[in-house]
């Protein structure tokens, strides 16, 4: 079958910010074919070159980027040598792109009807009743209810999942030959993610579009993609039919990524990848060698080429023939210090929370939760179920309408400002977005020192500084970053700083609000490992709010399932996941993509 798009030896760099005469290569000799009606999954850590390669392949030149070599053939047209005016006629018509954040990619000033009509007018010349009929059909095709009403609304009037459906409708408006999907399900709850994944699969198969799905979620890619390619340091290090890459990797990096993926049907703590990923291509050795458990001197001295193992399976590893299919290195399940019979540290009785006024329906409706000392408990549910509101009420950041929050046998004041210093110290919260929760004007050292200076005034500045370095070491950050500012750190590093700040207060109860939802799989695994290790060492109890059930299975001992402000099911993680009783829990578990095991022969 002739590919819809052929990309051959694509190499892209960025101009060095200091020495603009130099170019840092970030994508090196990338080749792949896209076939009609098939999905190619592109995976790898942040900075591996996934998005750069995909966008460069359709002719897009990011600011500061330099196309060094390669070709990208769409029929008779090489997109890498085509002029910008010609590309604009191709983009949106023959080639479409869906960004990660639909709320940012859909203009807030344009109604949905105009968003859909624009490519149809420009590329297909549709007008009048024909145009309107087509826009309605597009919304129906992506599952938007009441499309007549939806056409009159603005993007911000829809939920995140609905916005992503609209973005897909805009992309598919002209039935493109090639579709680029850049992390379209990241940040969505499990049921919405499953719906969008099924929608993507159906749209690609029904339309015959050739598509790339970029994601760090290997379970998702393995579920719906026909083929998977793994990128590291700007190169494809392994490519294979999806089934082979899911369960029988031959490259150590692919195996490490799979070990970092939480699994809803397997209890066990995920394993993070040590070290930091290379940010540029490496020519003189294996780029993954500094982080690989199989590294030899040969790996450090020679750059591997792709080896072909037949049936579309290629691997860039000097030892791949010797190592064969690699086995899992996952940890045993996490267990609390005090066990399940620990004394109750936090008890929530009949908690009711609402917004705006007393006439609004409650977002938390008579919720009861119990957490034992040193226990890790998860509160799970879809977006909008009331999880974060309950967490904020415990932290004293949202005043409850009714109910009681009892900490260590003492009722907590509704507002954090009315609580004594000991409770401020004992109860710490880590927020979902470290970009917003870390003061951009303070250094890392100042951020971590702040709670100690307030909660432990008797400690000297030198003692606190020593504690800062100790905490940085605990969260596996180099002491050199102590004098850096948040904007100089990666997302994973920022979240580690937020964790260090929380533990600086020496808490007894840690509240975690979706702290890994926006992180790539290897960073997520490292953060989960870190939280489990620190809480085990200190005996700190954790209430872990998340919509990711696989994360719950990896880290929590007990779980509460929440929907529309109500707890529907609770129990030990194993019992709830293996024998769910409520239909909602059954539906949530069914929506989670799974890594299917096959024999290695």
- Highest CATH level, the class of the largest domain: Alpha Beta
Please provide the count of β strands.
Answer: 22
For this structure, the CATH topology of the largest domain is: Rossmann fold
Which range does the strand content fall in? 15-25%
Would you write up a description of this structure?
- This protein is of the alpha/beta class and 601 residues long.
- The protein has 23 helices and 22 strands.
- The protein has an eight-stranded mixed sheet with strand order 6-7-8-3-9-10-12-11, with helices on both faces. Strands 18-19-20-15-21-22 form a six-stranded mixed sheet, with helices on both faces. It has a four-stranded antiparallel sheet with strand order 2-1-4-5.
- β21 (558-563) and β22 (566-572) form a beta hairpin.
- α4 (112-124) crosses α5 (128-141), α17 (444-455) packs across α18 and α17 (444-455) runs parallel beside α19 (491-504).
- The relative contact order is 0.11.
- Mean pLDDT is 89; it is low at 336-341 and 597-601.
Short description:
This protein has 601 residues and is α/β, with parallel strands linked by helices. It starts with a strand and ends in a 10-residue tail after the last helix.
Ordered list of secondary-structure elements with their pairings:
Blueprint: E1 5-15, E2 23-34, E3 39-43, H1 50-57, E4 65-74, E5 77-78, H2 84-90, E6 95-98, H3 102-105, H4 112-124, H5 128-141, H6 147-151, H7 160-171, E7 178-182, H8 190-207, E8 210-214, H9 218-224, E9 227-232, E10 235-241, H10 242-247, H11 252-259, H12 297-301, E11 307-308, E12 314-315, H13 320-323, E13 344-353, E14 364-372, E15 376-380, H14 387-395, E16 402-407, E17 410-411, H15 421-426, E18 427-430, H16 434-437, H17 444-455, H18 461-474, H19 491-504, E19 509-513, H20 521-538, E20 541-546, H21 549-555, E21 558-563, E22 566-572, H22 573-578, H23 583-591
Parallel strand pairs: 3-8, 3-9, 6-7, 7-8, 15-20, 15-21, 18-19, 19-20
Antiparallel strand pairs: 1-2, 1-4, 4-5, 9-10, 10-12, 11-12, 13-14, 13-16, 16-17, 21-22
């Amino acid at each position: 079958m002739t590919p819809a798009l052929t990309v051959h030896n694509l190499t892209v760099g960025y101009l060095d910010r200091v020495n603009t005469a130099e170019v840092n290569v970030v994508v090196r000799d990338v080749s792949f074919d896209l076939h009609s009606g098939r999905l190619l999954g592109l995976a790898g850590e942040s900075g591996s070159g996934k998005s750069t390669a995909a966008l460069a392949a359709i002719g897009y030149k990011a600011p500061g980027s330099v196309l060094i070599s390669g070709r990208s053939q769409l029929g008779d047209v090489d997109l890498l040598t085509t002029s910008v005016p010609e590309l604009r006629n191709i983009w949106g018509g023959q080639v479409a792109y869906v960004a990660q954040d639909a709320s940012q990619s859909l203009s807030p000033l344009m109604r949905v009807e105009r968003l859909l009509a624009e490519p149809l007018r420009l590329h297909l010349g549709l007008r009048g009743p024909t145009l309107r009929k087509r826009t309605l059909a597009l919304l129906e095709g992506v599952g938007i209810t009441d499309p007549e009403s939806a056409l009159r609304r603005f993007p911000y009037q829809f939920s995140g999942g609905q916005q992503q459906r609209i973005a897909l409708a805009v992309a598919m408006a002209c039935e493109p030959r090639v579709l680029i999907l850049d992390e379209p399900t990241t940040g969505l709850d499990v049921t919405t993610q499953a719906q969008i994944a099924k929608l993507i699969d159906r749209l690609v198969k029904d339309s015959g579009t050739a598509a790339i799905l970029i994601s760090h979620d290997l379970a998702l890619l393995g579920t719906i993609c026909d083929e998977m390619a793994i990128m590291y340091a700007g190169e494809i290090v392994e490519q294979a039919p999806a089934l082979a890459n899911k369960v029988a990797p031959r490259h150590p990096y692919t195996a490490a990524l799979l070990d970092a993926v939480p699994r809803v049907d397997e209890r066990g703590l995920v394993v993070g990848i040590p070290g930091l990923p290379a940010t540029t291509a490496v020519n003189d050795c294996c780029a993954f060698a500094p982080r690989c458990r199989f590294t030899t001197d040969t790996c450090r001295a020679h750059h591997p080429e792709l080896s072909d193992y037949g049936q579309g399976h290629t691997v860039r590893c000097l030892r791949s023939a010797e190592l064969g299919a690699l086995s899992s290195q996952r940890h045993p399940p996490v267990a609390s210090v005090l066990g399940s019979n620990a004394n109750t540290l936090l008890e929530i009785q009949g908690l009711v929370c609402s917004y705006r006024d007393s006439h609004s329906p409650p977002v938390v409706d008579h919720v009861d939760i119990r957490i034992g000392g040193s226990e890790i408990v998860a509160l799970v549910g879809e977006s909008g179920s009331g999880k974060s509101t309950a967490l904020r009420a415990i932290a004293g950041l949202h005043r409850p309408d009714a109910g009681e929050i009892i900490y260590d046998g003492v009722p907590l004041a509704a507002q954090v400002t009315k609580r004594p210093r000991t409770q401020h110290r004992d109860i710490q919260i880590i927020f979902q977005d470290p970009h917003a929760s870390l003061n951009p004007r303070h250094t890392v050292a100042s951020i971590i020192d702040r709670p100690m200076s307030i909660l432990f005034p008797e400690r000297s500045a030198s003692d606190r500084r020593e504690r800062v370095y100790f905490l940085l070491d605990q969260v596996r950050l180099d002491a050199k970053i102590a004098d850096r500012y948040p904007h100089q750190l990666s997302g994973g590093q920022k979240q580690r700083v937020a964790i260090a700040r929380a533990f600086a207060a020496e808490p007894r109860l840690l509240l975690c609000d979706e702290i890994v939802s926006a992180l790539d799989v290897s960073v997520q695994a490292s953060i989960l490992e870190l939280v489990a290790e620190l809480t085990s060492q200190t005996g700190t109890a954790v209430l872990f709010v998340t919509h990711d059930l696989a994360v719950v299975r990896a880290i929590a001992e007990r779980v509460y399932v929440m929907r529309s402000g109500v707890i529907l099911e609770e129990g030990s993680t194993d019992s709830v996941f293996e024998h769910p009783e409520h239909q909602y829990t059954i539906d949530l578990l069914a929506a989670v993509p799974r890594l299917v095991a096959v024999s290695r022969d």
